[in-house]
Amino acid sequence: MFKIDRRVWLLILVALAAILRFYKLGFDSFWLDELFVANEADPHQSLGSLFLALKSSDQHPPLFYLAERCFFYFFGESESTARMLPAAAGVVSIFAVYRLGKEIANERLGLIAGTLTCVNSFHIHYSREARGYMFAFLFSTLSLVYLFRLLKHLRRKDAWIFSLFGLLTMYSHYFGVFLVFGEFCAAALLFPGEKEKPLFVRRFVLSGIVILAGYSVWLPVLFSLGKIRSFWIEPLPGDWVLRFFGHYFGDIPGLAYVMAALLAVYLAGVLARRTGRWPATHRPALAKSLIVLGVPTLFCYVLPYIRGLFVTPMLQDRYTIVVLPCLLMFIAYGIEMIPTARARNIVVGVLFCFSLLGEIGILGTWSKPHKTQFREVTEFMAADPGSNHYPVLCERVAPLEMYYVRKLSYPGRLLDGPRARVIDSIAKAGSADGQTDGFWLMDAHSAGDPGIWLDSATRKKVDSGFVKVKELWGLDAWAQLYERRPEP
């Protein structure tokens, strides 16, 4: 594929992936979802409070949160440290994708897939976010690696390792359950001939028992979450498949179309090529790759989509990150089918440069803020010595804003009661809340226009008794300072 040694190219990819994922890791403030992690994985909080939150308010499996809790204990809690584990998982996953391609076909396929992953916008973004999505990507990739190994060799060791990574995927994100279920269904479709059948059954029964036993402690939580009938996710638009596919590639103009064309090349190749057989199966190699990667991918879209139609919507593009390795492998396989080395190199080089330039230029990943500016708004309030003792009215996101209030040692109170009642109490100079010369209004995460944040009667009360002194408009966040009008 490349004129330089392939092992050297792999090292270059890993090194570049580390730069793209670790550079300016603390540049952005925590946004809403990351603040859940920062608060819940705090090692000074009890484990009971963490598990309660994972069951009630932040419904995710516990693996990433426990890993973050341990990391915070040793290295402290900040934007940078919170994102180090996802960034490290993102770097390691370049090698995992390479291994997957090598296991499916050859080293060249692995290097092509690793190159695409290195500069993939979706992968970079979630490698730089303090959430468990990159754990899900890494462990789903490794589970697929060992599924292929198990299907080819039917070794007990591969069955144990496949079970381990399947469990880690399921404990990283609930969509991992769909993926692992799809992996077993794909294996069933590849049921071998009479000679290998007994060993095949024993190996996959062993894996199934290990996975069920390992996940049994969390199954009650999963079943309880299955009873949820309302959720924050909106119904999907009609073109959701196209939107998801575009998001995977950063919505960089034209890039998704090229990737879709290469995916079509792969699918056409599956139909056209009928040679090359794998051990323990009578199916052609390409057909096997489509079944092993395609069935889990299909399950991760179709099952939650159907549940969303009849129960409650649950599909989000980031939840499907468990199948992104499959999609990248399909596209890499489409490139691998190009008959000449020069043409392959040109396609890979163009996609590499186009993706990287899109990240730097169009998306500005390392030069402009992308996350809700909780930190910057709180710093603005804390920096004013004349008003940094005023109470902060922050009804919607107060439990999460408390993280930055504590971190920046803001001396004023954080008020999260009903807006009209709190403002009425502040306006009355004789009340407990009214013993202040001013207050802050603050909101974040789809905060909307502060001009309509208060109802008209409360706004009239504020404008008659107070004057707006200053304000800050941040990305998806704002703060306004009001001071009491002097007596006539």
Q: Any low-confidence stretches, pLDDT <50, length ≥5? A: none
Structural class: mainly alpha
Distance, first to last CA: 81 Å
| Range of strand content | 5-15%
Number of strands: 5
Q: Please compute the radius of gyration using only Cα atoms.
A: 26 Å
Notes on the structure:
- There is one protein chain.
- The chain has 488 residues and is mainly alpha-helical.
- It has two domains: 6-362, no CATH class; 374-484.
- 61% of the residues lie in helices and 6% in strands.
- It has 21 helices and five strands.
- The protein has helices spanning 6-22, 32-40, 47-56, 63-75, 79-104, 107-118, 121-127, 133-153, 156-170, 175-189, 197-215, 219-225, 240-248, 255-272, 285-310, 324-336, 341-362, 374-383, 398-407, 419-427, 456-465, and strands at residues 392-393, 414-415, 438-444, 466-474, 477-484.
- Strand 4 and strand 5 form a beta hairpin.
- It is elongated.
- It starts with 5 loop residues before the first helix and ends with a strand.
- The mean pLDDT is 92.
